């Protein structure tokens, strides 16, 4: 895997108060520019891991590093972390609280103490990136679920983080909403933001991610998405199924219809374009 390690958990352990360990001795890296999908069964610790990455939780053991330097959990250290890593939680209602979309998105930049003009520029940029500029004055409680999701993501984008961490961003979106979100994420990535996404959707992960991390009881197993998502053993341990593209590729190969070294199709379009023997 290429790319500098921007943020990493090293030997990280975490348990909620009075609870059993959720993560123990976990190693996890986010590499600059690599789209990373985080997968694992319900309760495997994806959300916990993401909260550790963004500093909302602090590991009981091990450490969180940004560009190799351990994060300090005092006010200044956490502010520095927030401008590097931004988490968008799964349920937008846990994130949104201001009266209007524009106010909500401006909260983070205002809190950084940025000048008004800079705050306005960032809010405009984030609303445009999420295609919700027209909703700026709309009361947040009147938004649809998909609009609330986009508003929550805009709030994180307005912080101009280097790493955007999204907890199940496509859950609850309709097919068109999912496509628009992926296009939005492509745009953010083109502008240099590294995106990490937790998802249960193996087909989406295969199509979208450069790398995939499978969270299992033995730790996080990370590698190129096309390889990791073809590892039946790991997928089973992680409570996941094989992506259909991998299954179709295998079937075509077994029937002698696809060359041994050819890549598996990741989308219906790629399947249609396959050079079947
Ligand atoms: N605030 C909390 N207090 C106590 N235990 C918690 C808390 N949040 C999560 N847990 C426990 O930690 C474990 C990991 O939960 P987590 O939410 O990180 O899993 P997840 O992989 O995100 O699951 P899902 O796919 O359902 O979102 C679970 O056993 C859960 O019950
Ligand atoms: Mg979760």
Structure notes:
- This is ABC transporter ATP-binding protein.
- Pfam families: ABC_tran (PF00005).
- InterPro entries: AAA+_ATPase, ABC_transporter-like_ATP-bd, ABC_transpr_CbiO/EcfA_su, Co_trans_ATP-bd, ECF_ABC_transporter_ATP-bd, P-loop_NTPase.
- Belongs to the ABC transporter superfamily.
- The chain is of the alpha/beta class and 277 residues long.
- The chain has two domains: 5-97 and 160-242, Rossmann fold (3-Layer(aba) Sandwich), CATH 3.40.50; 243-277, no CATH class.
- Helix content is 38%, strand content 22%.
- The chain has eleven helices and ten strands.
- The strands form two sheets. A six-stranded mixed β-sheet has the order 6-7-8-3-9-10, with helices on both faces. A four-stranded antiparallel β-sheet has the order 2-1-4-5, covered by helices on one side.
- The longest helix has 16 residues, at 175-190.
- It is globular.
- The mean pLDDT is 95.
- It binds adenosine-5'-triphosphate and magnesium ion.
- Adenosine-5'-triphosphate binds at residues 16, 19, 22, 40, 42-48.
CATH topology of the largest domain: Rossmann fold
How much helicity do the residues have?
25-40%
- CATH architecture tag of the largest domain: 3-Layer(aba) Sandwich
Bound compounds, please? adenosine-5'-triphosphate, magnesium ion
- CATH H level of the largest domain: which superfamily? P-loop containing nucleotide triphosphate hydrolases
Order of helices and strands: EEEHEEHEHHHEHEHEEHHHH
Overall form: globular
Number of helices: 11
Q: Characterize the largest beta sheet: strand count, sense, and whether it forms a barrel.
A: 6 strands, mixed
CATH class of the largest domain: Alpha Beta
